[in-house]
Design a protein that fits this description.
There is one protein chain. The chain has 12 helices and 16 strands. Strand 7 (about 315-330) and strand 8 (about 335-350) form a beta hairpin. Helix 1 packs antiparallel against helix 2 and helix 8 (about 270-290) packs antiparallel against helix 11. By secondary structure, the protein is α+β, with helices and mostly antiparallel strands. It has a 5-stranded antiparallel sheet with strand order 6-7-8-9-10. A 5-stranded antiparallel sheet has the order 11-12-13-14-15. It is extended, with a radius of gyration of 43 Å. The chain has 3 domains: about 5-60 and about 80-200, no CATH class; about 230-365, Nuclear Transport Factor 2, Chain: A (Roll); about 380-530, Nuclear Transport Factor 2, Chain: A (Roll).
């Protein structure tokens, strides 16, 4: 029995391979799938590059594929070409709607008609010869039957070819057929990307990546065995051992580094922030090559106020005398002997161990303990802060002024002394680029004038070791490059600055900057990229 296919609409049986029902012309096969990778609405192209709207990579809604930055003009990739059709080529029109006529595919019907015609001719000739001669005249019959068989074979081959073409996946047929207007160019398709978009994107050589600051160490506990004398804790010996470890962590050997983690673990707030701020300035000097060694000797401890060991957290006040020796490359430094006052906590930790930490320090510059000055900071008026910041930015832009007689290393060193934290990590690479251009004769000079500072806010209690100010600075820069006109730019920029207090007094540090590259504070912009600002700008 010949296999039949039931019509899903009227239930009539149709020969296998029919595309439409012989009774109602309904399609007998499910709608073909669309071309892989092609949808009715192609994905929108990337937006124009705008450094002011940069977001972190993890939050970007569009991930550009690897390769050239210029996007292709066609929003999808065509599938591979189908195998060629046998000669003569057969044009396959896209089926936009079911045909009005009945009987299935016209090509299949033509093939079937040719087969029937060949069989009919063969049978007719055979009957005519047999009825006329009554004998076994096989030669004409054999010739006719052979010709009928050859024609039938050709018709069957053509029918098989047409069946194969009709069963080719829709992606192949769609590739051969003229593209449909609704499939390739929908009415709501995204507008074509203009060439100016690609031109606006910075090249790899002109791209600056905002650096990230080193992660802050999590304070730990330095647990030690308690020292006993006559069966009782020897507080003096324990404190002497504490400061031996403390100053060992602050010692700098040739080619070595300070042990900031141990200093962190041996201190508490507010003293921790205070002393780490001073140490980071020394770290900057080491990186600049101006500080080679720091040693401490003759460390002596005197307990001023003995601790009450029965208390849950005993507290003591001590006076420490020590001599510091430095070896620097920029200037000679004689040994310095100081008497310093600290307050310490003694705690019991697991398994009978103890820990000592320094939590307070008498700041000679403020003539007060850090805990006292943080609760009752020295009165600093807004007008005084304004004057101090105006002087700071005059020195800041003087350090960044470049010319034929400029010492690039000195410019970097002075800028490093006036900056800290995220802003230092951000601005020193940009200044280094200008210094390199100056050395290679690509840049002749950078000068600043018209510096005006506007105080936006001032919080004297922002930290236990000084306040925090936010300012707007307007200044005009003039950059001169060989063979080019003088570039003059007047801009206003926003800074955050810390007024740090230590034994030498108060000094300002630029710690944060609202970057035009990321349109955000650099402390919040690690990893974002944008074009390198022009010399003297940003």
């Amino acid at each position: 029995m010949i296999n039949q296919t039931a019509c899903p609409k009227c239930g009539s049986q149709n020969p296998v391979g029919s595309q439409y029902c012989d009774q109602c012309s309904a399609p007998l096969q499910a709608a073909r799938p669309t071309m892989p990778g092609l949808s009715a609405r192609p994905p929108a192209g990337p937006a124009a590059f705008n450094p002011a709207s940069l977001t972190p990579p993890t939050a970007a809604p569009y991930a550009a594929p690897p390769g050239p930055s210029t996007p292709p003009t066609v929003p999808f990739v065509a599938p591979p070409e189908p195998p060629p059709l046998p000669d003569p080529p057969v044009r396959v029109e896209p089926a936009l709607s079911p045909p009005a006529r009945r009987g299935g595919s016209p090509l299949l019907l033509i093939g079937a008609a040719l087969i029937a015609l060949a069989v009919f001719v063969g049978i007719g000739f055979s009957a005519l010869l047999n009825s006329g001669g009554g004998g076994t005249a096989t030669t004409p019959t054999t010739v006719v039957n052979g010709e009928a068989t050859r024609l039938a074979g050709q018709a069957a081959g053509l029918a098989a070819t047409l069946t194969a073409v009709s069963n080719v996946p829709s992606a192949t047929v769609a590739a051969q057929a003229p593209p449909s207007a609704t499939a390739v160019v929908p009415a709501t398709a995204a507008p074509a990307i203009q060439p100016t978009v690609a031109a606006a994107a910075p090249t790899a050589a002109a791209t600056f990546v905002i650096p990230s600051s080193a992660p802050t160490s999590v304070p730990g506990v330095v647990a030690v065995q308690p020292l006993l004398k006559d069966g009782r804790p020897d507080v003096g010996a324990e404190i002497q051992a504490f400061f031996a470890r403390f100053y060992q962590a602050r010692t700098l050997l040739p080619g070595g580094s300070f042990d900031l983690d141990t200093v962190t673990n041996l201190t508490e707030q507010p003293y921790r922030d205070y002393t780490l701020g001073l140490l980071r300035k020394s770290v900057a000097d080491v990186q600049a090559g101006t500080l080679r060694e720091v040693n401490y000797r003759d460390i002596a401890v005197r307990v001023v106020a003995p601790p009450d060991l029965s208390a849950l957290q005993p507290t003591t006040e001590v006076e420490v005398t020590r001599t510091q020796e430095q070896i620097r490359t920029d200037k000679p430094v004689p040994p310095v002997t100081d008497k310093l006052r600290f307050r310490l906590h003694r705690r019991q930790v697991a398994a009978g161990l103890i820990s000592w930490t320094a939590y307070d320090y008498f700041n000679a510059g403020a003539n007060a303990w850090l805990t006292d000055s943080s609760q009752n900071p020295a009165a600093v008026s807004n007008s005084q802060v304004q004057r101090e910041l105006s002087d700071f930015f005059n020195r800041f832009y003087q350090a960044r002024t470049l010319g034929s007689a400029t010492d690039g290393a000195l410019a970097l060193e002075k800028t490093g002394e006036l900056t800290q934290f995220a802003y230092r990590d951000y601005t020193l690479p940009l200044l280094q680029q200008q210094v390199d251009d100056l050395a290679s004769k690509k840049l002749q000079s950078v000068q600043y004038s018209g510096i005006q500072v506007t105080l936006d806010s001032w919080n004297p209690q922002a930290t236990d070791h000084g306040g925090l100010a936010t300012v707007h600075v307007t200044r005009t820069s003039q950059a001169q490059r060989p063979g080019q006109a003088l570039t003059v730019q007047t801009g206003t920029y926003q800074f955050r600055l810390h007024r740090h207090l230590d034994e030498t007094g108060a000094f300002w540090l630029a710690v944060d900057f609202f970057s035009p590259i990321s349109n955000a504070w650099v402390s919040e912009s690690a990893g974002l990229t944008g074009p390198i600002p022009a010399a003297g700008q940003g």
